[in-house]
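Action item from last week, closing it out:
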Amino acid sequence: MPKLPDFAPLIRDRRPSPYSALVDRAVARADEVFRFNVGDTWLEPAPGCHMQDIATAEHPGMHRYAPTQGIPALLDAVAARVEARTGVTTRREHVLIGAGVTGLLDAVARALVAPGEEVMILAPHWPLVAGAVRGAHGVAVQVPFFGEVSSPAEAIARLDARRSPKAVALYLNTPSNPTGRVLPRSWLEAIAAWARRENLWLWADEVYEDYVYEGAHVWTRPLAPERTLSLRSFSKAYGMAGNRCGYMVAPAEVVRQVLKASTFTYYSTPTASQLAGARALGPAGDAWIASARERYAAIGREAARLLGEPAPAGCTFLFLDVSETLARELPDADAPLLRLLERLADHGIVVAPGPSFGPYPRHVRVCFTSEPPEKTLRGIQALARLLGRSPRS
């Protein structure tokens, strides 16, 4: 047999996701499976925003390529919405439609990060951002942050301690996946001022901007518009994860450079997905968000109560420290978190492992919107029993 060339080390050495094996184990061993590992919703999109609602007769060419920056009508609708929300002048040239925020961040990393340069990432963080940075041959510097700093001054001290001369950007996510925390205005003002002083890009992942249950979401772009890349998603806002459509709002020159990178990956965002997104930016979508936010908040509060956790301030996740369970039930196990994940899967419960979100080998993430509410609460009760958790009074 001939010897084949080797694989690229960046991919060859990347550990495979544990999710598939755990799901397969749960399906094989349990009567009912609770997929709490995936960040999705049980809800269907708003009326009139489904794919079957979009007809070729109304949109000739909907099965052809869209313009690489995005459909003009969607670019204009996004710009108008963002300007109305943030108060920052926003035009078509400030917007890039992408194949989800995943696709956009991949393009952002390749456009803004040279090999060896560093991106600081507030952790726990959305899992795929570190991989996007490494895919651009940059260095992902994880900064333990959420739950570990308690004031703007502490936040800046933590950033100062982790910054090196190679840093070119800071990634932040509010409301936070996986912690459910929402960064207050005073913190974001301090962070924006620090990024300006240190001459860093700000990658502001705001895909859960519409899902804040305590306090209010604060947009980053008004605080430092010259260096902020705001990333938003139809997936999370409108229950359209399968459509793969999101958008970035940034300085016009950033849009031009990121567009160069995105053209060489997904080329353009699916045309039908953009048409559905444009529909969602109307009254039907606004009503959908208002209803979903109320339902998400209620189920999030109850899921947290059953697990003995404080209610999330936003987002659709709970990030659980399972140290006590590991110490009590698996004190001598090799890879104790994996053993716990397997035990949960044997009971049909699949959760996301903490190391996916940074240096958190004793945490798991639970999505409380991926299954219908009755099923979710049934699974959360089982999870609480398996973890030895008592409800909050």
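Closing note: The first strand starts at residue 34 and ends at 35.
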